[in-house]
Design goal:
It is a single chain. It is built from 6 helices and 7 strands, in the order βαβαββαββαβαα. With about 210 residues, the chain is an alpha/beta fold. It has a single domain, classed as Maf protein, CATH 3.90.950.10. Strands 1, 2, 3, 4, 5, 6 and 7 form a 7-stranded mixed sheet that branches. The protein is globular.
């Protein structure tokens, strides 16, 4: 099978799929991400959000004239001691996040879901899920470091208020686990899901 829909507006996820030569089309969906429930762990929260995004994308696909293909979506969160850090919406919030993470190991979890729809009439949607966690050590930061970084504009749409693939890399002392997971889409696990649903990428394409 060739081709999937990517139900994500993240440029990092698009770049990662392009880097492993996946044939994909971006599917724009309207979905308001929820906040963690009191009883949820960070991984339960991110997995629930990603599943709900996948179901919303599937419902949209079934209501249009688009060709039925698998839908891939993902969600990435940063957490420290169970507290989830989303995308900062103000300078004060962005600086506060980085100061919390300063000198600490924190976790980055990406949940990936592939939704498979049988046909336009069926309400059955098969969901395949995988979640990946990476531990990241941020060096000790000053408030001035954080303010300078905020002024670059890079933290605005990044979970935890930093981009490991950008200027924020100068803050990272060590990572344990997948680098691409911290960027927003773990490459190994994504390729394994593609294998599972028999969708081509560079390794499986015939010349």
């Amino acid at each position: 099978m060739s081709g999937i829909y990517l139900a994500s507006q993240s440029p990092r996820r698009k770049e990662i799929l392009e880097s492993i030569e996946v044939d994909f089309e971006v599917l724009q969906i309207s979905y308001d991400e929820d906040s963690p429930k009191i009883s949820e762990s960070p991984i339960e929260f991110v997995e629930r959000n990603t599943k709900e995004k996948a179901l919303a994308a599937s419902a949209l696909l079934q209501s249009t004239k688009k060709i039925i293909k698998p839908v891939l979506t993902a969600d990435t969160i940063v957490h420290l001691d169970g507290k989830v850090y989303g995308k900062p919406i103000s300078e004060e919030q962005g600086i506060s996040m980085l100061m919390d993470l300063s000198g600490q190991y924190h976790s980055v979890i990406t949940s990936i879901v592939v939704a498979q729809i049988k046909d336009k009439k069926s309400e059955d949607v098969d969901l395949i899920l995988n979640s990946v966690e990476t531990h990241v050590l941020m060096r000790s930061l000053s408030a001035n470091d954080c303010k300078k970084y905020w002024n670059t504009g890079e933290p605005l749409d990044k979970a935890g208020g930093y981009a490991i693939q950008g200027l924020g890399s100068t803050f990272i002392e060590k990572i344990d686990g997948s680098f691409s997971n911290v960027v927003g889409l773990p490459i190994l696990e994504t390729s394994q899901l593609l294998n599972q649903i028999k969708v081509d990428y560079w390794l499986t394409k015939t010349s």
